[in-house]
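Q: What structure does this chain adopt?
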Amino acid sequence: MRNYGPAGYLWELWHEGPVRDRENIVLVHGYRLPFSALPGRCDEQFGNLDRLLQATTDCNVWQFEYVGSPWGTYDSVSVYASRLDAALTRISEITGNRRCSMIGYSMGGLIARRYIAMGGKPNVDKLLTLATPHMGTLRFEPFSIPRTARFYPMAGIEIRPDSRLLWDLNTNVESSSVSEFAALGGYSWGYSDGTIEMGSTSLVKCTADGSVAEKFYFAGVSRSHLNINRIKTDSDEVFQMIMGFLMGGVGGISKVRCPEKPGDYRVPFFLTFSMAENGRGRRPSPRVVVTSSGRNYRGPRICTQGARTETGARIYTVQLRPEDDGEARIYFGPKEYATVQVHSGQSTVVVRPIGTGTAKVTTSAAVA
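A:
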């Protein structure tokens, strides 16, 4: 493979074979642990997928390596999205065509969405994500600890469900997605792929009353997090779904596998919301009650790393169980609460800050 990236080790752009006047497919890898990527060598998380795509499609296939430090994925998702923008500029210089289809693995899907939100939407025809924590994860360190920016990787902090990055992406999903969008999630470990909760890997858009207004394509595959992108042959189920999507978008992948929803697998899911301070500047302690199951979530079950929305409301998340379906009450006072509709297995973000209106206000679950 040849690296078409800059001379320094900020980012690399790998391509094998001749560059043709064809469409481009850009592969964006996932989170890198320290010393897991070396300068001047393609890690090839997508190695066999790259070769199969070159043999099966008539496209230029590029592997974008965004990690520019031996310490792994230490910078923010926005930094890597900016590097993706530079990589697409380089592709445009080489091929004369900036437009592309993207396949994002794990955190690579969030980098692609952040790039789209930063103005890259006109350049992306299709986006397919593999085991991407669109709604965040709490499963393993250092991502399940309170934010200490001096000591922990920023990107790791940003893939918590209560991060500002995910809040911004998921409260304005129109700006961070494209019309041809599909997501695959793994369930080899019951309700997760061993790393990412399955209820976090899909997106839908809801109306103000909580009913689903638009669903993006989603399907589950029996793969672990480390294997969902490890394609062995062209008969591989995941490869067939990738090819269906690249050739025909959502309609093409739907012919290979009918669309599903995480609730079909009865998996836990996140409810993320923000809470405004009261008139005395104090931060109330939220409590979540699901009326159908009677479960009462409070205290350490409701997580926050202290991130705030643009208006200053603090962001919280709670992991609900598969049986929690229907009305959830988010209490911001002893007898004051707002209501939101939750859907079993489908993680949800409540857009309007809790506690800014009167009791029993129905909030808008605008993105899930």
